[in-house]
Amino acid sequence: MKKIAIFGGGGHGKVCASIAEELGYSVLFFDDAYPEVNSCGKWQVVGNKAHLKNSVTDFEFSFVAIGNNSIRARVQTELQDFGLAIVNLISPTASIHKSVELGKGILIVGNVCINIDSTIADGCIVNTNATIDHDCKLGRYSHFCPGVSLAGEVTVGEQSWVGIGSSVIQQILIGSNVMVGAGTAVINNIPDKATVVGCPGRIIKQ
Fold it and tell me: What are phi and psi of 104, to 5 degrees?
């Protein structure tokens, strides 16, 4: 069985590990809260980042299971610098068109649909029941929460967060480090670092 080191022993880690097991991996966790944190659900946390660095040769594959975008980006870079291979974890129940371009370190959870000619960059999270339509471009280390719907030709910058149940109409440009609140209907472009809430969405912070 393929061995995978997953870094991040919280609730998000359990989702990642469950998909990893479905894909045939044997899972061990690492977390910087070790040894105070020594388990993640049914899985064992066996060390911190320093332990992982010292046991790189024990693992063919690795994954960063951290929901926070900026921390996920930093840790994924660190693991790559250790020489670990970063994989994608894609639920067998996800539907992804063969033309979709995928980076690395991507999590795609159950019942996601990603349509033709979209691009999913490194470190993205596309969570349960999200739909990404044709020709969308999702920036590095962005997070799309459960039930998000992007219409065609939507572009999202790096490290943005699109909240649960949000919807975005076609051809919208969402900047980097944007926060889209839960249930927001995005009908206008959003600049970098803005926070948008409501239906229709309105900028409340920039």
Answer: -130, 155
